[in-house]
């Protein structure tokens, strides 16, 4: 699907979609449990992939008309899947359920689409092997397709922290139901640390305890997943909140209100402070869970995305509108997402007339040297690239047409509906 956006101002109220990160973890945690009701879950392409994996491990996931998920889990003992686990484009699914597969008494095969088959899984495979399982890439390059044979019983393991925090999350979630638990030593500094905090927060809600150690994390074995009252409610998603928030910052003369912005462990809530630093008029009522934003003159800032990699595309677009330079640093790990988001944003913003300087670990957007002009751009099969380019289209001179716009279904299925509700002039084709 192509979406063409004409210059527009935005005004009104939008509700944040549920958190993709929390939903993935909640579905899998419910799989590890006996039975759980998960409310306010994000039902998207990525989270459906996790639900299918839970079913292949012996669980059952049903969705009510109101979006509530009723999940009968495999109660800590995943069965050997009767079919290949297709994670499609979801890196979170692949990493989290690879560790689940290592618990099964037999062999599991995991694969995904072309993008996912290019993403690194090697450190997690090595960790599973160190824990007594067998785990290999069929091509011998640390990338999917993967073949995993268990069961592991737990032990101590070391793993790099600067490739993906999802390796840590996967091992903690699986380790809780092993016989001996898992003690994880981090070989390098942990990148995207708030995502592990999300995991720890969610596991606590399911009755699973995790300990922080001097050099990593540890989880005792033989724990039971059991959410209080058998229910878990997913909070709003700050990665997704970044888009209407940025829209209000660059084109919200009449003001935009975002609902569902309740505080949580999400590192991407940093976008509120970033937009405020850049000069927009922002008010976050944490108790009410609302954010109000009105546009104003924006100034470039320097931002580290070490712990918030998903914010890079949004910040880059804000930088294209701001005066001066916006320098995004600590960004090398952002190259290993659905696409290389550093290069993708530099190249696609360049088609719109934006000047950038790309380095291995940073992206600098030269707002004062840029004149946003409408053009045909490519979403690169990446939901975050698509949504960020849509923001640029709000203030570009002329029409901006985004190819592959359907990929917003990964995390924000109603994104373009939300933009239309705020007054954006757009056409789908």
Account of the 3D structure:
31% of the residues lie in helices and 23% in strands. The protein is an alpha/beta fold and 429 residues long. It folds into 2 domains: 3-17 and 235-428, Enolpyruvate transferase domain (UDP-n-acetylglucosamine1-carboxyvinyl-transferase, Chain), CATH 3.65.10; 20-221, UDP-n-acetylglucosamine1-carboxyvinyl-transferase, Chain (Alpha-beta prism). The strands form 6 sheets. Strands 22-23-1-24 form a 4-stranded mixed β-sheet, with helices on one face. A 4-stranded mixed β-sheet has the order 2-15-17-16, with helices on one face. The radius of gyration is 21 Å and the shape is globular. The relative contact order is 0.15. The model has no long low-confidence stretch (mean pLDDT 97).
